[in-house]
Design a protein that fits this description.
The complex is a heterotrimer of chains A (349), B (246) and C (384). By secondary structure, chain A is mainly α. Chain A contains twelve helices and no strands. Chain A has one domain. Chain A is 63% helix and 0% strand. The N and C termini of chain A lie far apart (43 Å). Chain C is built from 15 helices and eight strands. The longest helix of chain C is centred in the N-terminal third of the chain and has 30 residues. Chain C starts with 18 loop residues before the first strand and ends with a helix. The chains are: A mainly alpha (349), B mainly alpha (246), C alpha+beta (384). Chains in contact: A-B, A-C, B-C. At the B-C interface, helix 1 of B face helix 2, helix 5 and helix 6 of C.
Chain lengths: 349, 246, 384
């Protein structure tokens, strides 16, 4: 007979389950602080200046100062706003980013929920961010916020399609949707990583251009999912105000901020798992202990976050119709083409 | 074909831009950490003719008002009091000349000053000049009105009174001098003219003492009318006050 | 990729309404306090009405109460980004009225400083244009170089942004001994940074997509509206006051007049105006190099010909010069006294802004911000 789920939850497994929730959350909080500091410092260094230098030693405590500042600000809610939606919107967006952590494997053994449709689950849960944006824009009762939110929604939805095709190709290459399975197939050093064709014979150099193209498509789509430049129309100059998070102040604004950085990490983690080998060390079995695996995984994801920050300060932003052009007319056809090529390759393998 | 060229261009120019920013990421930074580690005045980066806050050296200012006239925004106000020669302690000005005017108020409103330095160029004694001081922000706009005069309000009053006394004394002296001159003239002319002289002195002496009888009567009548008017007015006011109470 | 959209679409029985929004005086993208009333049809702009006057300071009336040397600080504050160029036409006009011939060394200093100020102005124009686009980094690179130019100006005149340096009949004081060296340093740095900005911003595909075919200003429309400067030259019209009616030392100098050629997109779009400004910075560097090579080292008395009291004879004069933004003119009427009778300034940005409603019809609102940035206006000049 099936054990009662409630008994399981509050029985002997309670500590394990709470750890599975607390550890990723703590990690995410610490990561967000470091990411904020990283963004400020990297932005400054790219622009030939020093950045925050006064809070703490060389500005290390700046994110703490920012969080404290946002926490003690007055929480303004517009009078004509839709209060339940207005209050829930930032938390919904954060949920979308955090819920993906249930299926992301940090090491060989640590994965909170070992789903055999892990890839599909992460992708589906990422759609929560879209709902969060629409709620924020609609409930603000401000026509500029609504316009910004509409544009944001159209952008995020249309960029999910190339990402979906890229993920589908990886699923075809690996033969399953289970994340641990995908990572296990990339073991044995960086030559076996999916960006370089996955494991297989030397003939896989034929398929390297396609996987490289898919990596770039997935990365650009990830940029659009998190509303970073060059795709930051919802946040940037959309009719002169700040888009969907204009009317937010204080803790809720901090939550939007936090959700954006968490989303960045989620997207980078997905790319790492699919293309860069997840927690596998690039030297094969050398340095492949569980603790080092976590380090490799976090290191690779943080490198991709760094590339996202780097791109933000290099490029100008795209206009709305150009954004749609890039998604529908450039990325989707190429992703289709690569998907066909990779499916043929995995059939012949 | 153009389609593929566009894609290639996009990726290539992005990569080029990323290379430039990467070089700057590890390059030299140009921030000057002000004020503890670097300060423009102490590090000598401030040029000697930089135009910042004005300063007026009172020992050189002679109250000529040229700076106030030259200012395009009228931010200087100068008020002076003449130095009375009876004053015991008159310090000399710093270029050795004697001081002729006390400057009681020399106010510059730095909220209005446009730092054009036209006032420094017209000052004949170079008492007003531009310093290198640029950190003088205040919370209250009234505190930006700098009064450079070094006389306290009591001293200002004292000097003004002294000058007025001196003026009054001088006037008195002048009048006495005139009288003495006139008497001297009269004494000289006395042996020549007798009659005219007597009548002149009579009329001079008589006028203030006596009034004619008619005049006296007119004055009395005027006084009586005035008293009547006052009484009537007092009655009217009393009646009005009574009405108000009721 | 951006085509001008057809505005009059037959919607049939569907009720549509054009939206009027207000891009208010406080705005991160208009360069100053400018209010734009924009009428939108969905996303397409159908009409733009600019409202100005938020920075009006009554210069022209106040100047009637002051003597001529006191007017110069006021003129500085019109186009506060390039103040040396503002003072030049006024001072030249007064010298013509008074009949003063200034020595050549003073002319050389004036032209060198004006060209340096031209570089500084174009640096701001390109930097803020990139900022409107979303590129934050070139802004800081160009401002870092502008600091060097401002430090030079501080050593020469005492002020960083507003100088009161050109006087009627000469200059306020002589240049410091390190003037030549500083100028050559600046030119070297400006060339290096310009090359970087060309690769980082102007050559970027996204930037090209944003600015090509946007805000096309045909040449005849430009001439009819009376615009001048890079806006006019970007449309292909070869007109530069330094070439057609040379003043000061410009007839002895060798430089090219840059006109737009429509390399990417059509002739007269935002990209052309921008590239004209970038290349004019290089031309200014050439001019400064030529002047420095013949500059006499020994200092002379720059105040020798400054009259003690400026009292021009009765008459009037219109003197103009090539400001970085276009043609700046002063019409001075004097009635023989120490105060001007009337001092009218023909401001560059005022005329350049008038062309905005004409060229922004049919584009999207994000394009409107780019067009406004490419016209390079400064509200101090428009409102005076």
């Amino acid at each position: 007979m099936e054990q009662n789920f409630v008994y399981k939850l509050f029985g002997d497994g309670i500590i394990m389950y709470s750890l599975f929730v607390i550890i990723p959350l703590t990690f995410l909080l610490i990561y967000a602080l470091i990411a904020i500091l990283g963004e400020l410092k990297i932005a400054s260094w790219v622009q030939d200046r020093l950045g925050p230098m006064r809070t703490g030693w060389k500005g290390v405590l700046q994110p703490l100062a920012e969080v404290l500042k946002l926490m003690q600000k007055e929480d303004i809610v517009p009078d004509a706003a839709n209060k339940p939606l207005f209050n829930l919107a930032p938390y919904v967006m954060f949920t979308g980013a955090f819920a993906a952590f249930a299926a992301i494997p940090f090491t060989m053994n640590f994965v909170p929920a070992h789903l055999n449709i892990g890839l599909f689950y992460i992708f589906a849960v990422g759609a929560f961010a879209v709902i969060g944006i629409v709620m924020g824009g609609w409930a603000s009762n401000n026509k500029y916020s609504l316009l910004g939110a509409m544009r944001g929604v159209s952008q995020m939805v249309s960029y999910e399609i190339p990402i979906a095709l890229a993920i589908l190709s990886i699923a075809a290459l690996a033969g399953s949707l289970d994340l641990q399975e995908i990572i296990n197939q990339q073991s044995g050093g960086f030559w076996n990583w999916n960006i370089l064709g996955g494991n297989g014979s030397l003939w896989k150099v034929l398929v390297i251009p396609f996987t490289l193209a898919l990596f770039i498509i997935h990365f650009v789509g990830g940029l659009a999912e998190t509303n970073r430049i060059p795709f930051d129309i919802p946040e940037g100059e959309s009719e002169i105000v700040a888009g969907y998070h204009t009317e937010y102040s204080g803790m809720k604004f901090a939550m939007f901020f936090f959700a954006e950085y968490a989303n960045m990490f989620t997207v980078s983690a997905l790319i790492t798992i699919c293309f860069l080998g997840g927690w596998q060390s690039p030297f094969g079995d050398f340095l492949n202990q569980p603790l080092m695996q976590a380090v490799w995984f976090i290191g690779k994801s943080c490198f991709l976050v760094f590339v996202q920050i780097w791109l933000r300060w290099t490029l100008p932003r795209l206009r709305v119709d150009q954004l749609m052009y890039v998604s529908w007319k450039v990325m989707t056809p190429i992703a289709f083409f690569c998907f066909i090529a990779i499916s043929v390759w995995s059939m012949l393998r | 074909m153009e389609y593929f060229k566009k894609i290639y261009d996009g990726l290539a120019t992005t990569a080029e831009g990323m290379k430039i920013t990467l070089e700057h990421l590890f390059g030299k930074k140009v921030t000057n950490q002000y004020p503890e580690i670097y300060h423009p005045i102490t590090s000598g980066d401030m040029p000697p003719n930089s135009r910042n806050r004005l300063f007026v050296d009172m020992s050189g200012c002679d109250g000529c008002n040229s700076c106030a006239k030259a200012c395009p925004v009228q931010c200087i106000e100068v008020e002076t009091v003449r130095v009375s020669p009876d004053d015991e302690n008159i310090p000399d000005m710093n270029n050795g000349k004697k001081r002729k005017m006390w400057v009681t108020k020399h106010e510059i409103d730095f909220a209005k000053c446009c730092f054009c330095s036209l006032c420094t160029l017209v000052c004949p004694t170079e008492a007003i000049y531009m310093t290198q001081e640029f950190e003088y922000s205040e919370y209250d706009r009234e505190k930006l009105k700098y009064n450079f005069s070094n006389l306290s309000p009591e001293e200002v009053e004292e000097k003004t009174k002294m000058f007025q006394e001196y003026q009054a004394k001088k006037k008195l002296e002048q009048e006495e001098k005139k009288k003495a001159e006139q008497e001297a003239k009269l004494k000289e002319a006395q042996p020549e003219e007798t009659k005219q002289e007597v009548t002149v002195s009579k009329t001079v002496e008589e006028k203030p003492a006596e009034l004619s009888a008619e005049e006296l009567e007119k004055q009395k009548a005027r006084e009586e009318r005035r008293r009547e008017n006052e009484r009537k007015r007092a009655e009217r006011l009393a009646a009005a006050a009574k009405d108000k109470e009721e | 990729m951006t085509e001008k959209r057809i505005i009059d679409v037959d919607y049939g029985k569907v009720e549509t309404e054009r939206m009027r929004i207000n891009m208010g005086p406080q705005h991160p993208s208009t360069h100053g306090v400018l209010r734009l009333e924009v009428e939108l049809d969905g996303e397409i702009v159908t009409e733009v009405v600019p409202h100005i006057g938020y920075l009006h300071r009554c210069f022209e009336k106040s100047c009637e109460k002051m003597s001529y040397p006191q007017v110069i600080p006021y003129i500085d504050r019109m186009d506060y980004i390039s103040s040396m160029n503002n003072e030049l036409p006024f001072v030249m006009g007064m010298e013509k009225l008074l009949g003063i011939n200034i020595p050549e060394r003073i002319d050389m200093i004036r032209v060198a400083l004006c060209e340096l100020n031209r570089i500084a102005n174009h640096q701001i124009a390109v930097a803020t244009f990139g900022l409107d686009c979303g590129a934050f980094t070139p802004f800081l690179y160009l401002f870092r170089d502008r600091e060097m130019i401002l430090n030079l100006f501080e050593a020469v005149s005492g002020g960083r942004l507003l100088y009161n340096y050109f006087w009627i009949g000469g200059l306020m004081n002589d240049v410091p001994p390190s003037f030549k060296e500083n100028c050559l340093d600046i030119i070297k740095t400006v060339r290096v940074t310009n090359e970087e900005v060309m690769r980082l911003l102007i050559g970027n595909k996204i930037f090209e997509e944003r600015t090509a075919n946007v805000g096309i200003l045909p040449a005849d429309v430009a001439v009819n509206f009376g615009v001048s400067g890079p806006v006019l030259r970007g449309s292909g019209v070869d007109y530069d006051i330094r070439r057609s009616e040379p003043y000061s030392m410009y007839d002895k100098l060798d430089f090219d007049v840059i006109i737009g050629k429509g390399e990417i997109g059509t002739l007269g779009d935002c990209f052309d105006r921008n590239i004209v400004r970038m290349r004019e910075m290089e031309e200014s560097c050439k001019i400064i190099e030529q002047i420095i090579s013949v500059f006499p080292d020994e200092s002379s008395d720059v105040r020798a010909l400054v009259p003690r009291r400026v009292k021009p004879p009765k008459g009037e004069i219109y003197s103009k010069a090539e400001n970085p933004k276009g043609e700046l003119g002063f019409y001075i009427v004097s009635d023989g006294s120490v105060n001007p009778y009337r001092m009218r300034s023909r401001a560059t940005s005022f005329v350049n802004l008038s062309v905005l409603p004409e060229i922004s019809k049919g584009y999207m609102i994000a394009d409107l911000i780019m067009i406004l940035g490419s016209l390079d206006i400064v509200l101090g000049e428009i409102d005076r």
